[in-house]
Specification:
alpha/beta; six-stranded mixed sheet; five-stranded antiparallel sheet; elongated; disordered C terminus
Length: about 300
């Protein structure tokens, strides 16, 4: 008889890496299993792909193996949706039934993380203890699984506290949450965040460059400083993450100004979303921002936007 574990009431268990691992999914709606990170291709069983097998030796110490449930509809699992998972190792020597794993609100839900430690396979919930991640952490995990480089270089974020920025507060907060989550999952020290108020009249933002809407901040030679603002800065100043429409920014900002990046509307939709129904399209949408956050400070000589 398998050991029965209730979701949220266990932290980890260990199994031998000898023989095969077999995992099965039971879901109330059509769903498939996905295993990412093995050193050899897993074998999906049956047309419904709700069971999978792979050798225990395919789990390495270099990177974790993630087991996910993907909604066949490619839309989020419905509210209060939970799934059960069977886990067998070494020909049934170790058998577990994990009950009521929450997947609601996600299109691709992490169920288990497997790592090789001390000659045994450690099995933990979700993304290594958390059932869900914020967007930044989710992007970090997906990049790691794909083997793509992700080394954010931003060490300081200056938020323009000008009057013209009030309307953008939700975007600012969502960006800061994204960065904090991204850095936390990568195990990197979070950038220092500060707000800088700029003196001037309330309508000074209409002057564009140099007005309330464009904080004048110089680059930091000790790291990579960026300014979150609504109008790019003057040439020689700090590079910017610019809020607003890319088309409007292109029309208003001179091409001789400081380097800047403008996330497009799809990226902001992902940053502002309240659910965790992230998909492969989510990662594709966020890739330009992730790449920009990883640029070395010395190469920021061009002006770009997320198209």
């Amino acid at each position: 008889m398998p050991d029965i574990l209730a979701s949220g009431q266990w932290k980890e268990f260990s199994v031998s890496n000898r023989g095969a691992l077999e995992i099965g999914l039971v879901a109330p709606v059509p769903a498939t299993l996905e295993v990412v990170g093995t050193s050899s291709a897993p074998k999906y069983l049956g047309a419904s792909r709700d069971a999978v097998a792979f050798p225990g030796r395919a789990v390495s110490a270099e990177r974790p193996v993630i087991v996910r449930a993907n909604a066949s509809s490619q839309e989020a699992f419905p509210g209060d949706c939970v799934v059960d998972l069977s886990f067998d190792a070494a020909g049934g020597e170790h058998a577990y039934l994990i009950r009521a794993i929450p997947v609601a609100g996600q299109a691709s839900a992490p169920l288990l993380q497997l790592t090789l430690e001390g000659g045994a396979i450690r099995v933990r919930p979700g993304e290594g203890g958390a059932a869900t991640l914020g967007l930044g952490g989710w992007c970090a995990k997906r990049r790691q699984e794909s083997g793509a480089s992700l080394v954010p270089t931003v060490t300081e974020v200056v938020v323009d506290a000008s009057a013209s920025m009030v309307q953008h507060r939700p975007r600012v907060e969502s960006f800061l949450d994204f960065v904090a989550d991204l850095y936390a999952v990568l195990g990197v020290a979070a950038p220092h965040v500060r707000s800088l108020s700029v003196g001037g009249s309330v309508d000074a933002s209409s002057r564009g460059m140099g007005g309330v809407g464009s904080v004048q901040v110089d680059p930091d030679a000790r790291g990579r400083r960026i300014v979150v603002t609504d109008i790019p800065l003057e040439a020689g100043r700090c590079e910017c993450l610019v809020l607003g429409s890319p088309e409007i920014v292109r029309a208003l900002a001179p091409h001789s100004g400081a380097p800047y990046f403008v996330p497009n509307g799809d990226a902001w939709n992902e940053l502002l979303r309240e659910d965790a129904a992230f998909t492969s399209q989510t990662l594709a949408t966020m890739d330009p921002l992730l790449d920009w956050l990883s640029q070395p400070a010395s190469s920021n000589a061009s002006i770009g936007t997320s198209s």
